[in-house]
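Good morning,

Attaching, inline, the backbone tokens for the sequence recovery test we're adding to the shared suite. The designed sequence is right after.
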């Protein structure tokens, strides 16, 4: 989900796997949760920033084109 751009990931947490709750098979304990968080952060580092802004040269071109449309 993180690779596809998810910003919120729902997880189920358990204090110990010995309990047999209905969501126990899909719940993370403390160690598993820490591992998944580290892996998600690694994906973020690999993918890099997703906030792209035009650089100064592109900004000038955009402004020029906007001025041309207004004129």
């Amino acid at each position: 989900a993180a690779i596809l751009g998810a910003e919120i990931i729902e997880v189920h947490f358990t204090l110990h796997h010995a309990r047999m709750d209905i969501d126990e098979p899909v719940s993370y304990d403390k160690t598993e949760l820490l591992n998944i968080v580290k892996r998600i952060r690694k994906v973020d580092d690999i993918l890099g920033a997703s906030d792209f802004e035009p650089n100064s040269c592109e900004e000038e071109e955009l402004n020029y084109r906007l001025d041309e449309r207004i004129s």
